[in-house]
Amino acid sequence: MRRLPSLNGVRAFEAAARNGGFAGAARELNVTPAAVSRLVHLLEQRLGVALFERAANRLQLTSSGRLYQAGLTPLLDALAQLTADVTGRGEGHIVTVGVGPTFAIRWLIPRLALLQREAPGLEVRITTGGAAAPFSDGWSCGIELGDRHPPGLVSEPLFSADLLPVCAPAMAAGLAGPGEIDSARLIRVAHAPEDWPRWLAEAGLERLRPAGPVFEFYGQALQAAVDGIGIALGLRPYIDDDLRAGRLVAPFALSVPKGRPWTLVYHPRRREEPGFAAFRRWILRLGAEEGGQGRLIPPAGPVP
Q: Where is the HTH lysR-type domain (predicted)?
């Protein structure tokens, strides 16, 4: 038998911790601050630990409170999403996709109109977790870079993730070959420090040390490249639309596999859900089509 605390107390504490106090939680839960305080106090008694340090005009989480809130927020988010999925089935199929912000903005969202035409009753809800967070049970599926996932999940390849230097057309015009790369112009992505060394090694430029601006996400780095700040190491499929439109060009022909494919990840039980089944068919087909097309995009700049 599960030994669970009061859900009302848990909701009150999590809202107070997230909003920075009882007043903010009270507004969210549509109760009085005194009611929130009372529920949290009862929860603390039930747990036998203090979750807040209370002082005049100040409320601060204890170490136990921080630990509890860090675990509760994603659990309650997943419960809310699961409830929405279940209760929304009468109005139409709902698919919740966990994906990184750059993939969502640069690939998935621009293609949702195609899905709407193919499955007009399907509602796609995007939550930007992806590589930044572990797979959530509240998701219908995730789109992630890599094929190593916790036991019990299905992982299906979508397309390869290739690394290709890209920059603005004006900058590419001044590059005759990889040997003319200025290390100060090599734009870096903070969470992928291995990308440039991988490509430079394949280009025979192992001694070159990237020293350009650092951005948190690929999308930010690519926007910096569009704006002429430097050369970004583009990750496919993020760059394919920009290459086709001419916003970015590939000054060198060398494309290097990142070593991990893009994959569709989901629980086996989701296969029986009509909404997810439609999404899965669509994205696997599109991934196969665009994966092949992406490798055929020619570089728009000089080829070494």
A: 5-62
Count of H-run helices and E-run strands, the chain: 11, 12
pLDDT digits (tens, 9 = 90+) for 78-92: 787 777 666 655 444
Say if strands 122-127 and 186-189 run parallel, antiparallel, or are unpaired. Answer: unpaired
pLDDT in tens, 136-153: 767 888 898 877 776 788
Among candidate residues 262, 269, 270, 268, the one with its CA nearest the CA of residue 290: 262
Q: Residues 23, 27, 30, 35: what is their CA dihedral angle, to the nearest 10 degrees?
A: -10
Which residues, at least 6 apart from 58, have a Cβ–Cβ distance to it below 8 Å? none
Confidence band, pLDDT 50/70/90 cuts, at residue 296:
very low
List, for residues 36-81, the tens digit of each pLDDT value: 999 999 999 999 999 999 877 778 899 999 999 988 888 887 787 7
Q: Which domains are seen in the chain, by residue range? A: 7-80 (1.10.10.10), 92-160+260-294 (3.40.190.10), 162-257 (3.40.190.10)
Nearest alpha carbon to residue 256 among 281, 236, 276 = 236
The pair of structure tokens assigned to 208 is 């070159």
**Neighbour-count burial of 72, counting CB atoms closer than 10 A to its CB (0-12 exposed, 13-18 middle, 19+ buried):** middle
pTM score of the predicted model? 0.62
Strand partners, 99: 143
